[in-house]
Write a structure and sequence with these properties.
4 strands; 4-stranded mixed sheet; globular; alpha+beta; about 100 residues
């Protein structure tokens, strides 16, 4: 499966998505095994279903948080809306158009 090109977000759009993402619970957890195919598949399915997904890096994950965010975004064709602590917020529009960006 070939990821679609990564969408680019303006500052206003990123702020809007951060506001929506505040109430979300992490849908994908990354642990000691780091970025496996199972993690990528799970994240891809979550992005298809919800468009905006929160990812949590657990204590066992040794990846740098920004590096992990970029790798996940590149693997799924998503845009990084936020990296805060060990939490990453990713956005990828779907055919359903669940989120209307400003």
């Amino acid at each position: 499966m070939q990821p679609s090109p990564t969408p680019t977000l303006t500052g206003k759009q990123a702020r809007f998505l951060r506001g929506l993402g505040h109430a979300l619970r992490p849908a994908v957890m990354i642990g000691r095994q780091e970025l496996t195919d199972a993690v990528r598949i799970s994240l891809d399915e979550s992005l298809t279903a919800h468009e905006l997904v929160k990812v949590k890096l657990q204590e066992g994950c040794l990846l740098d948080r920004r590096e992990a965010a970029e790798k996940l975004a590149a693997a799924t064709g998503a845009a990084v809306a936020q990296v805060l602590g060990k939490t990453i917020l990713l956005y990828r529009p779907s055919d359903k158009k669940l989120i209307s960006l400003p």
